[in-house]
Amino acid sequence: MTAHPKIQLVDVHKSFGPKRVLDGVTLDIAAGESFVVIGGSGTGKSVMLKCILGLMRPDQGSILVDGEETVGLGARARERILGKFGMLFQGAALFDSLTVWENVAFGLIQGRRMDRRKAREAAMERLFQVGLGADIANLSPAELSGGMQKRVALARAIASQPEIIFFDEPTTGLDPIMADVINDLIVKCVKEVGATAVSITHDMHSARKIGDRLAMLYHGKLIWVGRTADIDRSGNDYVDQFIHGRAEGPIKMELRR
Amino acid sequence: MTLLAAVGRVFLAFLERTGRFTIFTLTALSHCVRPPVYGRLIGRQMIEIGYFSLPVVGLTAIFTGMVLALQSHTGFARFSAEGAVATVVVLSVTRELGPVMAGLMVAGRIGAAMAAEIGTMQVTEQVDALVTLSTNPFKYLVAPRIIAGLLMLPCLVLVADIIGVFGGFVVGAYQLGYNPATYLHSTWEFLKPIDVVSGLVKASVFGFIISLMGCYNGYYSKGGAQGVGQATTNAVVSASILILTTNYMLTALFFNK
Fold it and tell me: Which residues contact A108 (CB under 8 A, 6 or more apart)?
């Protein structure tokens, strides 16, 4: 039994100039759970993820991974913590200069110093796991469709069997069928790897499918946290408006006429 | 008050950029000398900078040598000093024109390519992806380019020196009617090792500047295609200006006695 939550955010603040993006976010994510953060564009979801990963430094607050403070870590310690993470980026973020298999094996070759031949074998296994064949292994990412790129990125995210996987808008830009394929793969892969998953999305279908627990971020604050099954009974007008996609409600879009 | 605030903002922005550039340079240098060394990446960059720049540097050098011979001949004829043409060509090419012209051409070709590649990686989150895969972007992207620039520019300039002097020889011997043996003898007679060595040292410094400016501007590019375009322009312009400035300083250091 683990004493600490897998990831813990305590009163995290982050601003860009006068704009407050995260305004006192406090959150516990347990080991092995799939946690989803929903919210409109520009509400600070990606910034929260980047703060946990250490790609951005919060102005104030504490971020703990396995009970270890990660804010202000040195390069070596940060690298060690990053070894626990895998990430699926919104735009896939595959390396253009490398082939598909080299992309998938990147973390194994560069991060874990695995022999290239062995890493290739491991990469091929991961590609099969996400439903892709050996025929695309030597292609460049630019030769793949958007859906295939997302699947390759998913294979890369799980290749080194991380303890924590982040999914940044995993279904954005995909057709509904491919989006559902990606959702299924996320659920399947997270279970197989046994990882803790943190996803950010504004796709409610995706959120309901992949999340055990769900939180809504609005104006830099978490305004609701609960089980995904309870989202329809949240009793929060903001959450209701968001999950039903209504233009009318307490959330006002800043439109200039 | 408004004027003072504007001046203060500009000054603070200048200090911030200077600090950011200094930290970038020191971090890049420290990663050049610390293990692990990515030999494969350094090799790839050496081929990109050294081998693929040969045609453009060679063409620049041969025409520079030819024009130099022609101009020296017509100019020196005014005070009957045509005998100095071969010496002027070889000293000008080895000391100044070889390294400066090669530096400027490589800045246009390689500096722009580096800024565009790293800039695109930055705006498409590939640099963030590197970090999440436990790979330091300085180690993986910046250090190999700086090492390759430092090593390959002197090689390119050595070739440019030979081709430039040959261009002068061709014009001198076959167009202006100089005796080939006398021309070659004059070329060798007054050439000292310091002339060539100073050019090669300059080349190495220029190679460092080109790679550094390409990587720096690419690394800090933002805002999509426009930002990458701006980074590319900045890389070429800043590298070119720095090459001309440091060229003066190095010339003063070597020859100001």
Answer: A114, A118, A119, A122, A123, A159, A160
Kindly determine whether residue B132 and residue A111, on different chains, have CB atoms separated by under 8 Å: no
Q: Quick check: B129 contacting A, CB < 8 Å?
A: yes
C-alpha to C-alpha distance for B166 and B90, rounded to whole angstroms: 9
pLDDT digits (tens, 9 = 90+) for B56-78: 999 999 999 999 999 888 887 78
Neighbour count for residue B235 (Cβ, 10 Å): 31
Query: How many angstroms separate the CA of residue B12 from the nearest CA in chain A?
Result: 14
Q: For residue A233, what are the contacts with CB-CB under 8 A and spacing of at least 6?
A: none
Cα separation of B154 and B148, whole Å? 11
- Cβ atoms of residues A243 and A220 within 8 Å: no
pLDDT at B256 over 80: no
Q: Are B214 and B231 in contact (CB under 8 A)?
A: no
Pairing of strands A196-201, A19-29: unpaired
As a whole number of angstroms, the distance between CA B27 and CA B138 comes to: 7
CATH for A1-84+162-244 (3.40.50.300, 3.40.190.10, 3.40.640.10, 3.30.565.10): 3.40.50.300
Handedness of CA B44, B45, B50, B54 (dihedral sign): positive
Predicted confidence (pLDDT) per residue in B38-60, tens digit: 888 999 999 999 999 999 999 99
* Annotated domain spans of chain A: 1-84+162-244, 93-161
Q: Between the CA of residue B246 and those of B120, B131, B239, B252, B256, what are the distances in Å?
A: 29, 34, 10, 10, 14
Place of tokens 């000008």: B92
Q: Which two tokens stand for residue A219?
A: 């104006």
Residue with tokens 């590609």: A127
Kindly list the residues of chain A whose beta carbon comes within 8 Å of any beta carbon in chain B: 50, 53-55, 75, 79, 82-83, 85-87, 89-91, 93-97, 106-107, 110-112, 156, 160, 166
CA distance A170 to A203: 9
Helix intervals (H) in chain A = 45-53, 75-82, 100-106, 116-129, 146-159, 176-193, 204-210, 237-244
